[in-house]
Design brief:
The complex is a heterodimer of chains A (about 200) and B (about 300).
Chain A (H helix, E strand, L loop, with lengths): L2 E3 L4 E9 L6 H11 L9 E2 L11 E10 L2 E9 L7 H8 L4 E7 L5 H17 L9 E6 L13 H8 L7 E3 L8 H20 L4
Parallel strand pairs in A: 2-5, 2-6, 6-7, 7-8
Antiparallel strand pairs in A: 1-2, 3-4, 4-5
Chain B lengths: L2 H17 L3 H17 L6 H24 L8 H11 L3 H10 L3 H11 L6 H15 L2 H13 L5 H17 L35 E5 L9 E5 L2 E3 L2 E6 L4 H4 L7 E8 L4 E13 L9 E9 L1
Antiparallel strand pairs in B: 1-2, 1-5, 3-4, 4-7, 5-6, 6-7
Classes of the chains: A alpha/beta (about 200), B alpha+beta (about 300).
């Protein structure tokens, strides 16, 4: 849940990058850390002690400056994607204000995407939130692998699989190259802030 | 696609998946390529190709085994632990609980030990020490800890009984022979606290929040939702802000609450609870707030 300090006119919100294991959540954050220096207000912390697999979470604080008279700070998190870290995912998701669901475009990961989205829905439900109401953006990552001859799902297929009911904004991306990362984040922040604005009515 | 192109494509896919850490997918592609190669009779370097693929599969299997057997919550650096504390806890108790939830039991244990000095957090710290001991050490250690407290006067009899009620069912379930000594004393004065039917911790769902329908006071007939800050078995602790003290003014220790809505990650259910303790927090960032301990009676 966002922290809104009415006196200081400060708002701090939480955006979580969710998705199946190895879909590129940490890569998204790494790119944001490298490319948005002005907005980054601290170090990116990756708590991963098992090679390059995220075991706990990644954390990156950002400052968006003043928006409608309010100083907006954002905390970006990733969750561990592997199925066995379910309790950590749930812990990190607590109090989330906006979500980027990073889906893997590889054909072989089709089922994992759907299972992870279901897992997100279940975890949100446990916190009394509906996946249909929470600010959510879908990102179809790893589009660059088509150039290497790797079978990918078409974005239409992915829309059908993941976004048929949700009907949320979605973006094709290649986090490793940075393509689509900024636009995904921007869309998520916009949705999140719109939602918080409705909740806290700070801009009225 | 001719067979050599098909093999090339499979090997390419396998390599990409391996580089992405998608070990199962990589193994499948290597195996498919190996199967195709085996079927070709007049392939010059057939044996060396199959050997190379077998080595790749072996490497993947080793890596998979390593990943599979790695501890799910390895010990983090102090910096990592500090981050968990700061990001997932508001007060000292929540910070220590966050450490425990992320499997950082050693540090959590040290922090809970320090919190024993704080009257407002003592009971919860004690229960969490037992929880950490059960997670990291053994039943014997947990029992030894309880017995040490039993022989001291750190906890009141009511608090000690609350800890016993948490620990005893776990011991019973694991077939631990000797029952824990039951504290006597001020417990008798605490009307209405029912400890005779303790539920083992494992059997109690994780309750995230509860809704209380008030039967008297200014909120009569209304259901008010409270977040559950801590849970030990069937004991729930709520922190009620001083501004909301009016809501719990009519709730006193020993009062039964007949209509409670429990929200757990798995299910939502109705039940009853009893107010075990109601304590004003005397120090720390939550000074002036109230800590309300509710024991679930039926759910």
């Amino acid at each position: 849940m966002a922290i809104f300090n009415l006196k200081k006119k400060e708002i701090e919100c939480k955006v979580v990058f969710y998705g199946p294991g190895r879909c590129g959540k940490t890569t998204n954050l790494e790119y944001i850390f490298k490319s948005y220096k002005k907005q980054i207000t601290g170090e990116m912390v990756s708590i991963n002690t098992e090679g390059d697999r995220t075991l706990f979470f990644d954390f990156l604080p950002m400052g968006l400056g003043k928006i409608k008279g309010c100083d907006v700070r954002v905390q970006l998190y990733t969750v561990p994607g592997q199925v066995k870290y379910s309790s950590t995912r749930k812990l990190v998701l607590r109090g989330v204000d906006g979500i980027v669901f990073v889906a893997d475009s590889l054909e072989v990961r089709r089922e994992k995407n759907m299972l992870s989205l279901k897992d997100l829905q279940a975890n949100l439900k446990e916190y009394g939130k509906s996946i249909f109401k929470v600010p959510l953006i879908l990102q179809y990552n790893k589009r660059d692998l088509a150039d290497e001859g790797i079978p990918l799902m078409s974005t239409e297929q992915m829309e059908k699989d993941l976004n048929r009911q949700l009907k949320v904004p979605s973006f094709a991306a290649s986090a490793v190259k940075g393509a689509g990362v900024g636009v995904t984040l921007k869309a998520c922040l916009m949705e999140t802030l719109k939602s918080l604005q409705r909740e806290f009515k700070w801009a009225e | 696609m001719n067979i050599s192109l098909k093999i090339k494509s499979l090997l390419n896919e396998a390599e990409v998946y391996r580089s992405q850490g998608l070990l199962n997918e990589a193994r499948e592609k290597y195996q498919a390529a190996s199967g195709l190669i085996t079927k070709i009779d007049k392939l010059k370097n057939k044996d060396s190709l199959l050997r190379a693929i077998a080595e790749k599969i072996q490497f993947i299997d080793k890596k998979s085994a390593k990943t599979g057997t790695a501890p799910s919550s390895p010990e983090l650096s102090e910096k990592g632990q500090d981050l968990i504390k700061n990001l997932f806890g508001e007060n000292d108790l929540e910070k220590a609980v966050a450490l425990a939830k992320f499997g950082q039991f050693e540090r959590a244990l040290a922090e809970f030990q320090a919190l024993l000095k704080n009257e407002a957090y003592r009971l919860e710290a004690g229960k969490n020490i037992i929880r950490c001991k059960l997670a990291t050490a053994s039943l014997d250690d947990a029992v030894a800890q309880y017995q040490q407290w039993f022989s001291q006067d750190l906890f009141s009899a009511v608090q000690l009984e609350s800890i016993r009620v948490y620990l005893q069912p776990i011991l019973d379930k694991k077939g631990f022979g000797t029952p824990l000594p039951v504290p006597v004393g001020e417990k008798d004065d605490a009307d209405g606290i029912e400890f005779s039917m303790p539920e083992p911790e494992e059997e109690m769902l994780d309750i995230t929040s509860i809704g209380i329908t008030f039967t008297n006071g200014t909120h009569k007939g209304k259901m008010v939702e409270f977040d559950v800050n801590f849970q030990s078995g069937d004991m729930l602790s709520l922190i009620v802000a001083k501004n909301d003290r009016g809501m719990i003014e009519d709730l006193n220790e020993g009062d039964d609450i007949e209509d409670v809505q429990f929200y757990s990650p798995i299910a939502m259910f109705k039940g009853t609870a009893v107010v075990a303790t109601k304590t004003a927090i005397q120090s720390g960032p939550k000074q002036g707030d109230f800590c309300l301990d509710l024991k679930i009676l039926t759910a």
